[in-house]
Each structure stands twice: as C-alpha cells, then as structure tokens.
Amino acid sequence: MITLKNIVKAYDVKRGNSGANAVDGLDLEIKKDEFVALLGPSGCGKTTTLMMLAGLLKPTSGEIYFGERLVNHVEPKDRNIGMVFQSYALYPHLTVRDNIAFPLRERKMAKPAAYERAKEISKIVQIDHLLDRKPAQLSGGQQQRVAMARALAKNPEILLLDEPMSNLDARLKLDVRDEIRKLQRDLGVTTIIVTHDQEEALAISDRVAILNGGKIQQYAPPHELFSQPVNLFVASFLGNPPMNLISGAVQESNGDGVQTVVTKGFNYVIPAARKLPSEHIGKSVKLDITQP
C-alpha cells in the first residue's frame, strides 16, 4: 500500500513571500496492485504529487509511505519504482535492447543477463522484433512501448506514468490504453497514472483522484464519480458534453406539492420521481442544462 499523509509542497513565489502550495494537505491511500489515476486541470498538483512519489521532489511537509516504510528521504534509485515520462526519455544513441537493459546495467547486472531480461520484457510488450533499432526508427506507439518495457525491466513494485499517451494520435491512444491496462493486470504492479484526459482516466483506472488547487476533490471508482459527484467542480469537470450551469431557487406549490426551480429566464418543474427533500425548499441551486 502507498500512503500519503497531509502532503504539502510549497514553492516560494518571491523572496519574503510565503509562496504558493502546489499540493496542499493531500491525503491518499493506494492499495497493492491497484491502478489509480491522478486527474485534474493544468496546475492542480497531479504531476507534483507523482514526482514526490518518485523521489524527484521532496514534500515540504507530510509523510509518504510505501507499505510501512517512510520514504520521504529515500533516493529515487532506492524506491524500486519504474517511471514512464511524457517524453519517453529514450536514449537516442542506444538500441531498443540497450534502452531496456539500461537500468539493469546501472544496477551492475551482467550484460548477458540484462539482455535476456530485455528480450523477455520486450516480448510482453510486443516489441521483441525491434530490439536492434534506434528510437528514431520507431513510431510514437513503439517508443511508448520501449519506455514501458524499460520501466518494467527491473520488476518494480510501483509503476508511475506521467501522461504517457499524450503524444499519441486518437486511434493509437485507445489501443495503447487497453494494452497498458491489460499489462498492469497481468503483472499485478501497483500503478499510478497522471492525466488531464477524463475519458482516459475513467476507462483505465480502478479509482480516480480528482485534484484542483492542490487538493483532492473526490477519490472514488469511476462509476461513483459519475453518479455521486461530491461538489460542483467534480460534476462540471467530468461532464461530457460540457455542463451549462444556471442559478435558481427551489419553490414548492402549497396545493399540489409540485416543486419548481425558478430561474431568471424560465422555470423548471422537477419530476415527481426526483422530488427534493423539504429542507431544499427556498434554497439556491445550480441547474445543469445539457443537450443530449
């Protein structure tokens, strides 16, 4: 299990200023073998959170645990993680084989053993026929698979994915998304993906943490986010097509008990099956007008 307790990451805006919190009091638990998405708009703190999990950034305050181990000051190389960057970060002068074997060779594994592991993992991600090519000779989807193979080569306990599909076209993105999900299930590796793509997050993840302003707005399975959004931000961020929100107030007829949302432009009669509890009468509400 991965546990983040009251994590804060602050950046000084300028000298003498307390600065801004990119992550502000974040609490999160991720179960073993779970696939979790960090989803939100640009600047919400999702990539900063991923970088702290990787050890590339250190939290200003709070605690990060991998199992029972506090890892705040553990170096990235000692965390047993695999990471796929948005740019893939492949070494252009190395072959696919050497790119995949690189983290193993850094751990002083003998070259024959490292190459054997590279061949083994390349078969899993279906690029074993590309081992002698250089990155420039590969398509975007093939480069993404090489980056994934390199991250998995050392049998990580945790796989971190930083918008790994953002550089792919729409058709290829769907294929790669399904492959990543299948691979994660087959290998049983705890996986965290950062994305701003709602459809991608909801399709691939067991649970989704929606962030805004450095705080988690809701953390739940995809179906729960859709059916029970906890606030207006979650509802509007996930809404597709985009929501049109109109302010109004709930009124109820004394005679027949019919409830109506009264707005400046029109009145909306609430269906009997969706009648609101009495405490909502007279209260302000937001009405979503979305064309089906």
TrEMBL record:
It holds the Pfam family ABC_tran. GO terms for cellular component: ATP-binding cassette (ABC) transporter complex, substrate-binding subunit-containing. GO terms for biological process: carbohydrate transport. The keyword Nucleotide-binding applies. SUPFAM superfamilies: P-loop containing nucleoside triphosphate hydrolases. Keywords: ATP-binding, Nucleotide-binding, Sugar transport, Transport. PROSITE patterns: ABC_TRANSPORTER_1, ABC_TRANSPORTER_2. Gene3D superfamilies: 2.40.50.100, P-loop containing nucleotide triphosphate hydrolases (3.40.50.300). InterPro entries: AAA+_ATPase, ABC_transporter-like_ATP-bd, ABC_transporter-like_CS, ABC_transpr_MalK-like, ABC_transpr_MalK/UgpC-like, P-loop_NTPase. Residues 2-238 form the ABC transporter domain. GO terms for molecular function: ABC-type transporter activity; ATP binding; ATP hydrolysis activity. This is Multiple sugar transport system ATP-binding protein/inositol-phosphate transport system ATP-binding protein. It comes from Paenibacillus taihuensis.
